[in-house]
Design brief:
Elements: E1 2-6, H1 13-26, E2 33-40, H2 42-53, E3 61-65, E4 91-99, H3 100-110, H4 114-129, H5 137-153
Parallel strand pairs: 1-2, 2-4
Antiparallel strand pairs: 3-4
């Protein structure tokens, strides 16, 4: 998986790459996928949340998928010929926006490291781009199980 990180905390860049690569392996996804993750402050994520979700408040992570992968199955890149980058052959899954202000507060609140919280938020956003959701209780269970397995393999524990 190719990841473009914008404004990412330097000390966590390798962690995000590891989380993404482990997620692709654990979930059986193809290697030719890409994602953009941008780290923003509270004002910027509030503006995005308001503009795209009509929710005028700060949140921790937002995901904007470029494809619909309902049921979160293995992505067949050949089904998206117009979305694949002709130069690289990679299919961009979409964009993730993470609010580091909220990540810092939540890390303190939950009693774990900022590394763990930001890795969790990145993974949460990535799982949304892969078609996972947590609206229905069963979907939430599946998403949590996938996240826990991936973070465990990465040795990122609470």
């Amino acid at each position: 998986m190719k990841i473009l990180l914008n404004n990412a905390p330097r000390q966590f860049k390798s962690t995000f790459k590891k989380v993404a690569n482990v997620a692709m392996k654990v979930l059986g996804q193809p290697k030719k996928l890409s994602v953009v993750a941008t780290f923003v402050d509270g004002d910027e994520i509030r503006q995005l949340n308001s503009q795209y979700r009509n929710i005028d408040k700060v949140t921790d992570v937002l995901s904007f998928p470029t494809i619909d992968n309902y049921g979160h199955g293995v992505i067949d890149i050949e089904k998206y010929p117009y979305e694949v980058d002709g130069r690289t052959g990679y299919l961009n899954l979409g964009d993730i926006f993470i609010c580091m202000d909220v990540a810092k507060k939540q890390a303190q609140e939950y009693g774990h490291s900022l590394k763990r919280e930001s890795a969790f938020l990145f993974l949460h956003g990535l799982l949304h781009l892969l078609g996972y959701d947590h609206i229905e209780p069963q979907d939430e269970i599946q998403m949590k199980e996938a996240a826990n397995e991936i973070l465990s393999v990465c040795k990122i524990e609470r």
